[in-house]
Specification:
The structure is a homodimer of 487-residue chains. Chain A folds into three domains: 77 residues, Winged helix-like DNA-binding domain superfamily/Winged helix DNA-binding domain (Arc Repressor Mutant, subunit A, Orthogonal Bundle), CATH 1.10.10.10; 122 residues, Aspartate Aminotransferase, domain 1; 238 residues, 3-Layer(aba) Sandwich (Aspartate Aminotransferase, domain 2). Helix content of chain A is 37%, strand content 13%. In chain A, the strands form four sheets. Chain A has a seven-stranded mixed sheet, with helices on both faces. In chain A, strands 11-12-15-14 form a four-stranded antiparallel sheet, with helices on one face. In chain A, α2 packs across α3 and α13 packs across α15. The longest helix of chain A is centred in the last third of the chain and has 26 residues. The radius of gyration of chain A is 28 Å and the shape is globular. Chain A starts with 17 loop residues before the first helix and ends with a helix. At the A-B interface, α5, α6, α7, α8 and α9 of A face α1, α5, α6, α8 and α9 of B.
Chain lengths: 487, 487
Amino acid sequence: MTLPVETFFLRPDAQGTLQQQIQQMIAQGILSGRFRQGEKLPSTRKLAQHLGVSRITVTIAYTELLANEYLFAKGRSGYFVSENAPAPPDFEPAAENDDAVDWGRAIGQRFSGGATPSKPQDWAQYRFPFIYGQADPTLFDHANWRLCALQALGQRDFTALTTDYYDQDDPRLIEFIARHTLPRRGISARPSQILITLGAQNALWLTTQVLLTQRRRAVLEDPCYHALRDILSQSRCHVTPVRVDQDGLPPDAIPPETDVIFTTPSHQCPTNATMPMDRRRALLDRARETDALIVEDDYEFEMSFLKPPSPALKSMDADGRVIYVGSFSKSLFPGLRLGYLVGSEPFIREARALRASVLRHPPGHIQRTAAYFLSLGYYDAQIRRMGAALHERRVVMEQAMTDHGLQVSGRGYYGGSSFWMRAPETVDTDHLARKLQSKGVLIEPGRAFFAGDLRPTNYYRLAYSSIPTSRISEGVAMVAKEIAASA
Amino acid sequence: MTLPVETFFLRPDAQGTLQQQIQQMIAQGILSGRFRQGEKLPSTRKLAQHLGVSRITVTIAYTELLANEYLFAKGRSGYFVSENAPAPPDFEPAAENDDAVDWGRAIGQRFSGGATPSKPQDWAQYRFPFIYGQADPTLFDHANWRLCALQALGQRDFTALTTDYYDQDDPRLIEFIARHTLPRRGISARPSQILITLGAQNALWLTTQVLLTQRRRAVLEDPCYHALRDILSQSRCHVTPVRVDQDGLPPDAIPPETDVIFTTPSHQCPTNATMPMDRRRALLDRARETDALIVEDDYEFEMSFLKPPSPALKSMDADGRVIYVGSFSKSLFPGLRLGYLVGSEPFIREARALRASVLRHPPGHIQRTAAYFLSLGYYDAQIRRMGAALHERRVVMEQAMTDHGLQVSGRGYYGGSSFWMRAPETVDTDHLARKLQSKGVLIEPGRAFFAGDLRPTNYYRLAYSSIPTSRISEGVAMVAKEIAASA
């Protein structure tokens, strides 16, 4: 490619003659790795014109660089970065100067160093990825997603693609969610009670900002989704973790002063527990007693391939007390970043205003593509396909875990994509995971899901949403072997 | 029973091909429980006749639904709703209830009611849209954007499309910005100093959260981008508005206790003033004196079609004191929601962690599409095309404004897409805008750009980024006429 003339600047404060400055500018471009071998430089005429210097000045500078073998000339076709030019260091070029800023003081609020563990970006390179929440290329309906995306890129959809919705969303996506997605969870909602978010993460974050302050009190399931704990600790509200049992969150353990209760009733994260109907009623009663709100993360309800899912807690909500969080990222792909909030207008109004201030709205093209994928029935077809595949993998997982004597702590009656596992007390699963990773096996240590200082260290999660059936039993065997060695 | 053909109809406002509309109509009928398992669909001939479409269209739609298991075919006797079709919910959606929640108490923080004015969503329906910051379908390179999006949807890019980047970005987009976009502004930055954001709005919001608290002090240009004022007031920091002059922000008016200075040096928003080189040096010196940081919103630098733009303030920053905000939304389309932050690592680290907590990362597909559009040179070509068109419109605007005696307050030496206008003192431009809107003319009242209680009411913005050249002078005449009537 030709290096665009616009990337050449004479610094107002630069030293030396114009010719030297030009030489230096190009040499630095090459040394810093910005200009690469074989790339074409602007013609002397163009560069001279752009910099407002005489053409001869540029010609002399180029000639100098030829002599130093930074450049080479190809007859009439011009000047190129030479392969003999000094190679840029393969480490990142050093900053031009050291900061004079005291960042320790300058930063008003810190957000780094949360509990959310980082997962290997190259998880797909591992042979036994028992990893959670990544898209399996073999299950995703790539072809039809592509068709829908293309259609959403068409001239007829130009407005949906390009317009600034300000604080609004794509009406077609909202309508589909209201008429088809929510009714399947027993929820009826008006468009004004629905807000599209950048995934469930964004929905939970917006909800926390609107409902919680430093003076307010939240109840979290323990264990729970670790990113949610980070969101709440950043909000500086008082957090009470409540240990879940085999039926999920126990209502009578919720303190009287609670303002907001975060729960995953249909499918507890990470234990996979499903809250029975009578406990759901008790939970709603408890919330009414303490005048608390409930934030329901209805996560993975689509993955109910063993039994139809129970209706959402929100469907039993007579008070408008439940705020519902849904997501398409799990069942489509996480990079999609598309979820939604359902709640009473006064709440949605504030969440919408905050979203507008933070990011305006999720990109229109993505909303429209999802609207097509959903309304053309591809989404349901994909869910069925995924369900069938997950069902098959689950059967193989259970057999393998029985064969190798692994202990399942939570399995989920309706389906799901993972098992919550318990190793012997003496096993530290952080350590276990590192050892397994070095052998090509990815598991998720359970520690990060728990609250407090005395967290259990012997739990872990085994997901089967990304591992091929054929590798499951060999992978499970390796986990069992490693546990036996560590115990 | 056979579903009566009369219950099928194509919505007049429906989008997509006829085949997709039919597919969608049937899929939704099944999902909403209107069509039950085993029910017979009308024959392709009957339905085609009824809808007035070709029979093959209906046949293809039915075939697609067969593939997705919504329908099954019984030899000669036709198509039926399949028992494998997704079942509608068997539980009744909850009835609407009045909220028992006291939302006045339940909401911890309010975000609604900001200063940002809402613009008509249907602006494109107006004959004279002197509206700012919307995409002009005649200028946007839709075809090549579509090609790049298609490429980014390909199998080779599956990971870029679907992966959960956690807190990271698409390395290809980052690399392009580092090597090609920033150098054009005289800035050299490492990948670790760049963060992709959901538009400049999101960049400014993240920056505010990281740098400002209730105890810290910010300086804002007055007038300025109104959404920025909302962001700062939500952060509850102390804000000092500093009135700009014809050269932009005057450094000596910045109070000594300032922590963060927000400025638009290359192209002041909304007055279009460009800060001269000596004032930029003075501003950097002033920031050093007061140990303040500078947030540079380098807005519309691509729209410099009269003269090449001056290098960014960040290019003169020896201290790491300047945080740079760039955006692709203005020059591509606002619905894209794609911008970036450039700053020292300690700052970017915190902004990245906050972004991860708020929304994880901007959708991968959009980052990759932009990376292609930029690296294939389509972006530069589009900027040139836009520049030429804006140049032409600007000439016509200036002629018309002279002819009709409109007073320009700020015009921008380098180009841009709008004029900052001053009406006679006696004219209230809020009122003026409403009257003009009823006549098909959209202008932006200036009031919302100013701070404080005694805001000037006689300023307004006339943008030419969305109005066809042919309508400019008639539109300007109407503005002049209305002003004369109001004065």
